[in-house]
Each structure stands twice: as structure tokens, then as C-alpha cells.
User: Fold this.
Amino acid sequence: MDKDLTLRDMLGYLKQIMVKLGLPKIRFRPGYFPYTEPSVEADVYFPDKHEWLEVIGSGMFRPELLRPLGIRYPVLAWGIGFSRLCMLKLGIEDIRDLYNNDLEWLQSRRMI
Amino acid sequence: MPSINLNYRDLCNLLGKSIEKDRLCERLSMLGLEAEAIENEIKVEVAHNRPDLLSSEGIARAMRGFLRIETGLPNYKMHPSGVTVEVDKSVETICPYIVAGVVRGVKLTDDVIASLMQAQEKLHALLCRKRRKASIGVYDLDKIKPPVRYTTTLPDGIRFIPLDFDRELSPAEILREHPKGIEYGPIIQELPRYPLLIDSLGTVLSMPPIINSEDTRVTAGTKGFFIDVTGHEERVINQTLTILMTGLAERGFDLKSVVVKYPKRRLITPNLRPRKFHVNTRDVNKIVGINIRPKQIAKLAEAMRYGVTKVNDSSLTLLIPPYRTDIMHEIDVIEDITISYGYDKLEPTFPKVLTIGERAPIEKLCDKSRRVLTGIGFMEVMTYTLTNTRINFELMRLKGEAAEIANPVSEDYTIVRNSLLPSLLLVLRQNRHNPLPQKIFEVGDVVVLDKQSETGARNVRRAAAAIMGEGFGFTYMKAAAEALLRELGSTFEVQATWHPSFIDGRVAEFLIRGEKVGIVGELHPEVIVGFELENPIVVFEIDLK
Assistant:
């Protein structure tokens, strides 16, 4: 939240986060979430997989949602599909394996 | 999200332009409609707030603007049809509202029929909430003799042939025997009378919201439609009719209005009037972070099918198309203008807000705990926070209450855990085939009931560890727990205690300034056997704060 934050600023944050995670190629599309307007979905390019994957949902909170809380400034919000990023980083194919607690299997995994 | 299938050839037809499939999908997704081409179809995901896009016609209308084939407010001409619907007083307590329209000049092809059926099905599912809020009927106009009466019948009243049947059934029989009666019957089953649409010659049109009659069925030769929407909310039935009829107008069919006569008022439907709306152009630039002139903004709005009636230095007067039921606030229009501008053309700006961030203190504490526990040879596991009373309480020889899930999906996950220990025991059970000893830990949240808390419960971050195997007794685990507490900088005391999950005399609790913060001990054999394990297990669990 800050005075004068813009939609382009939000794209800037998302871009910087992905740059820091080593995935600098990011593209933006319109999305829909009930609490944000405008809403943005972001696809990130994974060079190992040669694929764009949808990993971020984001938006600017709707003003009528902020007013009852006494907020009069723009608020940017986003959520990153962290499980998906982990799966790619760890080479996991099945999302349930993120919670696989077979000790022998765990020992064979790298740390992130 | 709801998805619909568009016939590629039909879509190009409606667009009035042939566009290569990949390009079409890319443009659809930049309009906010995730699209994927599968052979001759394009599968499109439509957001819940846009029921006007639940048909090929609706999508083509939006795309024509977005692709700048045709911009501005769609122009709907409508003349009176001469058809009247008379509303009987008896519907008031049954299903009180109806709107209707007529479409002439209909030319049905397989594509048109498929698209109309899909639109009706999707509107029923979404906007009409599985027919609970509203229900649509489409009939062959030439098989009806107006005026149409919207009335009610007794469950064993008038008999008619429902769609796809070859014999007459009573309303109650339809509810029992017809597939649609079985599916949607519960909506009206308990009512003393059922809704009924019937024409001046006594031909039944339908029994909303269940089924139409075979007599008024739409066929390949149908030249005109009579359409009705009945329901409990006037807003929803109006929206549904407007979306359906304006979609058909995209096919070049002629829309005609219907007079609906209630006992005490008279309406002309459908409502195709656009809404007037003012947008401050400075807000557009300020929120998006761009700098474009009011005239350009007007062009962008027109590409999203808004009408523009006035352009000032700092504001636009727009006309919102009647089928746009989602526009509530200026911000909704601003988003449309941004989409029209192109999300792909928005350059990210490096954030101007420079504050110094750092990890939350609790996360630092957790990281430190993880380092300490891995340092003394434990392996980290990650488990589910949801569990059930058998695992959380019974198998631990405990009685108690935990935060319950209101509508659990599965019997296995009905409460939120209030201890990490059962989770660790489940991991050990999963690892029975692996060599011993097994030393594991988890740092995670539990939820404890707390009357002081606003919600009646609060989250507590804990660290817990377990060792299964011979040669690790109370003393070993106590030393491990003390190592953790010491590294976290706590001054603590240990005192003997008693706990149903542990063996008497082999359990102690940790206290910081007299407050209980953790427990350590050897698990009771019944607990071990309960989790289908057969080796001694020592555990500890400590609050992190």
C-alpha cells in the first residue's frame, strides 16, 4: 500500500520478484478475482521446460473493499504458486510428492 | 471457472473475418479469456462475472471490438411483437416473476443450435444458479397462440407431453419420471402448486423450471422464438433474458419486445437500454500509471463495446451495453480500458516504494529451530494441518476438542490439529519399511481453542521431534529438546508431569517463567500400537515464540 501506486508498479514488483528467483521472463494477462480490479495473471517462462506457466495471480484491491477499512490508498496484492515453483526446482512431477514423507525418498532429494 | 467450447469456423463467421487459430487464442487470452485450440474447437475459460461471454455470439461481439473490426455500442433495434404474457395472481407465492421476448427471422443451422443450447445450459448453471434463481424457456413461436398465460397448476393438474417423451404426464409424474423432473424437481416439489406457461388455446409451453412441452419444441425448421425467463429475482431474470436475446441479435435475427401484464403493473421486456456512466480520465491514468488523452481513452472504451457520448478534458460519458451485468464501479470500466490498451503493452515500472524488509521474527525463530534440529541429526518432514479426532485424540489416548471444519470433504480431514505429534507418528507409520532408527522433526502450525481470541481459536507455531528405535530413551530426547531451547536463548525449567500419551515417570514438561511451553517423554505403548508401530518412540513438542 502506498500513495500513487499504479498497476504498472505492480507489474514491476512481480517482475523483480521473478528476476530474483532466477526466472526473468514474465508476461501479463487480464485475470479475474472477485476482490481485485484490475486483476492480472502472470505467466513465467521456465527455460528448463521451454514452457510458460501460470504461477501468479494478482490485482489492485477494489476501492469499495478498502473504504470500510479506512484505506484510501491503492493496495497491490498477489499470490505466487509456490508449490509449483518448488516442484519445478525439485524435479517433482506429482504435487502430492511435495508432502511425501518417505524418509528414504527425502534423503535422495536436493535442498532448494 | 466455467468453460465453453466454440466452433472455430462459426466463430470466424461471427467475427466476419478469418483469423488463424493461434492468433485468435492469443488475442482471446489478452482479452482475459484463456483459450486453447483443440482440433476444430476453441475451449475458452470465462470468468464468473461475465455471463455475457458464455456463448459464441457473446465472445464474437467482444472480440469484434477488441480486434477493432467493429467498435462502439452494439445497436439493438427492437419493435413490439404484439405478444402479451398475462401473469396470474397465483404465481405470487410460487415463483413470482417472468420476462419474455420474441425473436424473428431465425435461421437455424447446426452451429446456431449448438451455440444456443450451450448458452442456455451455461446461463442455467451460473447466472440462474442451477435454475434455482431463474429458468429459461425457448419455444417455436409459430406453435404458440398468444396471449401466453403464466399461471400455476396442481401437481395432479393439467397433463402434457414433456420434451423427449411420447405420452402425456401429470406435473407430479414429470417430477417422478422425467430425467429433468428428477434433476430439478426438488426446487418445486414442496410447493402446493407448480408454475405453468400455457397459450390461449390451452397448449402448454412449459412447467418452469423443469421442462418444456413437446408441442412447442424448437426444430431445424423453426423460424421464430418465444423466450421466457421465470424466477425469484427480477434483476437476474432481466439479465438472463437480455444476455440471451442480444446474443441472438449477433446472428442477425430480429428482436421483438413482449408486454408482461401483472395484476397491478405492466412491463415491456427485454430491457435493452444502455446505462449511462461517467469516468474520470485522470483516474484511468493515475491507476494504471500511463498518460493518455481523453480522446484515446474514448477509443479504447469503444473497442470494449462501450458507447461514448461525450468527451471532456477530464471525463468521459459512456454508455454501458445492456448485457454487461458486471460493471459496478468506475474501476471496472478502468480495467476494461486497460485491457483494451493491452496488458502486453504495459511496461513494468521499478517500484518507487523503498522500505527495508526483513523476515518476521517468528520465521527467524523457525529457521533457527530447523538448523538446530538438523544439526543434531533429525530430518525435517512436512505434514498436513488437517486431521480427524481419531488420530488427534483417540489414538493419543486423549479426550478434547479442536477447531472443526464446517463442511469437510473427507472423513479423514475433519478438524485442524492441535498438536504436531500425531502428524509425526503418521510419518513414522508411513516409514515402517525403512531402517531404524528414524529421527524426524516438523516445525509447523497447530490451532488451539482459546475463548480470549476473537475467533475462539488461535494459531501456535511449534517444533516437534520424534525418534523411533532402540536405545533412545527419555534422557536422550530431553537433552535434544534442551539443546533446542538453549539455542533459542530461553531460560527454562523442567518438571516431572503426567500425561495420558506418555509412560508414567518418563514424561516431563518445560516451563518458561512458570508457563508451560512444551513436553518431552516416551510414548505410551498403546499409542505406539494404535499407530500400528512396534518400536519404542520418544518425542518432544515445544511452542516457538
